[in-house]
Amino acid sequence: MEAKELMEKAVRFHGHICPGLTIGVLAAKYVLEHGYEYSPNEELVAVVENDNCSVDALQVLLGTTFGKGNLVHQDYGKINYIFYDRRTKKGVRLSIKSKEFGDKKLTRDEKIQLLLNSKPEDIFNIYEIDYNPPGLAEIEESVPCEICGELIMNSRLMTYNDSEMCIPCYKKMRK
After folding, report:
1. I need a labelling partner for 119 at 20 to 30 A (CA). Which of 23, 25, 43, 99 fits?
2. Is domain 142-173 in CATH 3.30.60, yes or no?
3. What is the CATH architecture assignment of 3-129?
4. Range(s) for CATH 3.30.1330.130 in the chain?
5. Is the pTM for the entire model greater than 0.70?
6. Which distant-in-sequence residues (6+ apart) come within 8 Å of 104 by Cβ?
7. Which residues, including other chains, have CB under 8 Å from residue 56's CB and lie 6 or more apart?
C-alpha cells in the first residue's frame, strides 16, 4: 500500500490527520514493506515508547492492540518503536531522527507534507535487533476487590492490612 492509502485508513480510525499519525503510518509502512504482516492474533508485536497519535496508526494498520496483548507501551516519552515477528523470529527498531522532525520553523501542515513525501528510512534510524519479544498475553482470573467489590485481574491485587484490593483502593488506604 502507498503512504496515501495507509494514511486514509489511519485517519478513518484516528479521526484527524496530524504529524504524529503520519509518523505512525511511516513506521507501519516500513515494517509492512520489510516482511512483517498485519497481525490478526499475536504474530506481530509492537513495543512503543510513547502514547501519542502514532500508536493509533500502528493499531489499525498492523493489527497490534492492547486488547490482544501485542501492543506494549513503555512510557519513555520517546518516538521509538520495536517490532517483533513471531513467525519469522525477526526484530527491528525504529527511532525518529530528531533533526528531520524537530524543525521548529515548519508548520503543522508542512511537517505532515514533509513526512508524507519522505521514505521511512529518511525519518527513522532503523536497526535490526535480536529477537526477544515480550511473552504472549496471559488470560488471568478476575477476583473482586475486598474493599470496593469491583473485579480486578488476580495479578494486580494489592495486599494491605490482610485485605486484597485493587490499586485505587490500595492508594486510598495508604493515605
Report:
1. 43
2. yes
3. 2-Layer Sandwich (3.30)
4. 3-129
5. yes
6. none
7. 10, 13, 14, 21, 24
Identify each DSSP E strand in 24-174 by its residue range: 44-48, 71-73, 80-85, 90-96, 124-129, 142-144, 151-153, 158-160, 163-165
Q: Where in the chain is the domain with CATH 3.30.60?
A: 142-173
Q: How far apart are CA 94 and CA 124, in angstroms?
A: 6
Identity of the amino acid at 72: V
27-42, pLDDT tens digit by residue?
999 999 999 999 999 9
- Among 59, 54, 125, CA closest to 94: 125
Distance CA 52, CA 98 (A): 16
Q: Give the pLDDT confidence of 74-115 residue by residue, as tens digits.
A: 999 999 999 999 999 999 999 998 765 656 688 889 989 988
Cell numbers linked to 5: 492509502
Whole-Å CA distances, 118 to 9, 16, 29, 59: 18, 20, 11, 21
The amino acid occupying position 34 is H
Compute the distance between CA of residue 32 and CA of residue 48 in angstroms, rounded to an integer.
Answer: 17
